[in-house]
């Protein structure tokens, strides 16, 4: 064989046949099957590894995250406005949030739901809002921090 064809794919020299450096086929792959491609050497099975234990999330953790959900009309977070009535967490870290709105006809519920999903992503396994209307929301439900925020933007509360 000439030197010009010695390294061409498919030739005996390129395949390791007839070369003093050639290795026996059965030493290239587990089980003696003679691998020819790098992918033949890769094991497809993943090792058995226990998933890391997810730490329990508390109601306070969820409420703190919900402070990043801002009422688009009042520009104050839903926790300080008193719109979050309760947080329920199950053993799998699924959260159900009892929440109301300043008005049942609020056109921005989709935005509040989207923002809630966004801030709780990675903290809980899943989140759902349970819209409740009793007791009806009133100004007395606003926290002191919420009142301060509303006064700062011109509301008299």
Helix-strand layout with pairing:
Blueprint: H1 59-66, E1 84-89, E2 94-99, H2 109-120, E3 126-131, H3 144-152
What report would you give on this structure?
With 157 residues, the chain is α+β, with helices and mostly antiparallel strands. Helices cover 18% and strands 11% of the residues. It has helices at 59-66, 109-120, 144-152; strands at residues 84-89, 94-99, 126-131. The protein has a 3-stranded mixed β-sheet, covered by helices on one side. Strand 1 (84-89) and strand 2 (94-99) form a beta hairpin. The longest helix has 12 residues, at 109-120. The model has no long low-confidence stretch (mean pLDDT 82).
Element-by-element helix/strand order: HEEHEH
Helix content: 10-25%
User: Uncertain spans, ≥5 residues at pLDDT below 50?
Assistant: none
How do the strands of the widest beta sheet line up side by side?
Answer: 1-2-3
The largest sheet is: 3 strands, mixed
Overall structural class, as computed from helix and strand content, comes to: alpha+beta
Radius of gyration: 32 Å
State the helix count.
3
The rounded distance between the terminal residues' Cα atoms is 95 Å
Shape category: elongated
**Number of E-state strands:** 3
Mean pLDDT: 82
């Amino acid at each position: 064989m000439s030197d010009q064809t010695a390294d061409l794919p498919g030739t005996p020299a390129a395949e390791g046949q007839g070369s003093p450096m050639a290795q026996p086929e059965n030493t290239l792959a587990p089980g003696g099957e003679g691998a020819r491609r790098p992918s033949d050497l890769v094991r497809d099975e993943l090792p058995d590894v226990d998933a890391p234990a997810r730490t329990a999330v508390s109601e306070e953790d969820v409420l703190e995250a919900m402070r990043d959900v801002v009422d688009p009309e009042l520009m104050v977070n839903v926790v300080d406005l008193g719109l979050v009535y309760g947080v329920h967490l199950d053993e799998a870290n699924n959260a159900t949030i009892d929440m109301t709105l300043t008005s049942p006809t609020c056109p921005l519920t989709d935005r509040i739901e989207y923002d809630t999903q966004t801030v709780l992503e990675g903290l809980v396994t899943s989140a759902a809002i349970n819209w409740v209307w009793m007791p009806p929301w009133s100004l007395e439900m606003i926290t002191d921090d919420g009142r301060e925020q509303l006064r700062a933007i011109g509301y008299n509360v």
